[in-house]
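To the team - adenosine-5'-triphosphate complex, inputs and output below.
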Amino acid sequence: QEELFKKLIAHSKEYGFVFPSSEIYDGLSAVYDYGQNGVELKNNIRRYWWEAMTRLNENIVGIDAAIFMHPTTWVASGHVGAFNDPLIDNKDSKKRYRADVLIEEWMEKQREKIDKEVEKARKRFGDAFNEELFRQTNPRVVELSESITTVNHRMVEALEQNNLAEVKKIIEDCEIVCPISGTRNWTEVRQFNLMFETKLGSVSDEANTIYLRPETAQGIFVNYINVQKTGRMKIPFGIAQVGKAFRNEIVARQFIFRMREFEQMEMQYFVRPGEEMKWYEFWMEKRMRWHRAMGFGDSKYRFHKHEKLAHYANAASDIEFEFPFGFKEVEGIHSRTDFDLANHQKHSGKKLQYFDPDINQSYIPYVIETSIGLDRTFLLVLSAAYAEEKVAKEDGTSDERVVLRIPPALAPVKLAVFPLVKKDGLPEMARKIMDDLKFDFACQYEEKDTIGKRYRRHDAIGTPFCITVDHQTLDDETVTIRYRDTMEQERVPASRLREIMNDKVSL
Ligand code: ATP
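Output:
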């Protein structure tokens, strides 16, 4: 799987999906650029999300707020005080780690030990094996799972109380060693704020310090009254937004999974207080359906319920996807209560209440939020789509191909048009067909190399349909359409292409 992930990163670069930022200067850590195919895929994912939110839901509208916001926004939202990661350094390797991540990785290792014990026993007992009973009674397994529960409990409490000495003590008690130096020579734990600061205007005094937004949500909260009034929205209603967010991540690795500059697609759904759990469940289910509609297989997704809640939430779950490096969060669904709006009301002095005509009452709405990373979804699509296959050749030997099985609706190029040869009027005919379709579909014209090579190139970027224009086309206006996934070829009238495409490129 590690190997697969490395190949995926290399493939992304080779085929113009993702480049390291400012690569000629050796890149910038955890910052990436999207190439010619990457930008198309990203736009298509964004559109899939945007339309699912704003078109399919009559009560959800979009906005596009600025990245810079009044600095008090981040005091009210709690980010100035609490958007921190607890950091620890190893004195020997001089490497810096997130203390909570070290502890979580330790717990994961304990879980793996349990799984090993379970597997060993399953082999030993065969059909008679009762896993549940084994987990409850085997002394080693019981001891391991109790240690996980205790450590988890201690960590949640320590972070909640901002008790950094206790976090350090947990690291010592678990005998966690630095993966680089192998020693337990740790510094104290300290809090590190993830927000990037910059200065507004030319006077560099404190008052001009502003932040690059670490989440897009606050742009929605501060505009909620504007949208509600001007759009005459009635609760429940939602506001959707896609935009950049910035976090000075410490553990910045895993390619575009964790970046310092990334894009979020967030939707805040404003509901009547007391009804938030109903809507929380509703959105969990609805968001899972959106993911599954991409067709990568339901078993690749799961929910993960948060025990440790962020400062603003009263319930939270993640949708996790099975990346090459394991199940990891792609989207969070959070019940944020009235935390944000109540605090903005307090700090701004402006009334952010809603008058609910159905019950004749004013209140600050509660909020359910769905928050998904665009870049992380991009990585999801790439890793689910990437496949290496053996292909039988006509002469009986076999060949290899790399194919990106991207859902046609999301593919960067929908249709590639090839003239069989560069003469006899075939290029002109091919261009004519393409000119007819290019307003509706992303098309690409290719005349270089053999048809076989052209197919491979388009397999590698996930083009679902390739059509070839040959001499017969000049006679009867039929073309060969070749399907990416099955590699089957079919002769069809050129006039039917639009209909075939329309049928296949919607999700
Ligand atoms: P994590 O636990 O992975 O740091 P988070 O719980 O802090 O993520 P949220 O604040 O809930 O994440 O953000 C919502 C979504 O934004 C995440 O599910 C993820 O898809 C995306 N996201 C968050 N941080 C990053 C990042 N540094 N790079 C890319 N995407 C991110």
